[in-house]
Amino acid sequence: MIELQLDDVLYNSGILGLCRVFDSVKLPYKKNGQTITFAKSNLSNFEEHYFASLVDLYGSETSYYKMVNTNSKQFVKKCIEGITEEKELERFNTLIDNMKRWLTSNSYKNVYPFLTEIPYDFEASAKAFKKVNKKKKETVADVQLQVTEMARELLECLSFLEHKQAKRYIVPRILSYQVIQGFWSNVSLLNRDASKKDLYVEYENHFIQAAENYLETKKDEKKYAKNKLSCACCDNKMKSTTKKKSATEAFDLTWVQKVGVDAARKSSHYWDHQRDIFICPICNIVYSCIPLGFTLVRGAGLFINNNRSVDDLISINSISLKAGKVDLSRDDLESMAYYQLLDLMGQQAENQKLLEIDNIQIVKFDRNSESRPYTFNMLSREKAQQMYDSRKDFQFLVGKFAKENDEYLSLYQEVLQRFYNGQGFADLLYRLMRLVIDDDFKGMASIYKILNISNNRFKGRAHFMTQEELRKIRISGYYLKQAYRGQEAKLNAISYRLLNALKVKNPNKFMDTIFQAYSYKKNEKLAIPTFFIQALNDIEKFQTIGYAFLIGLNGYEKSEDEKEDTTNE
Question: Which of 208, 253, 250, 243 shows the shortest CA–CA distance to 51?
Answer without folding.
Answer: 208
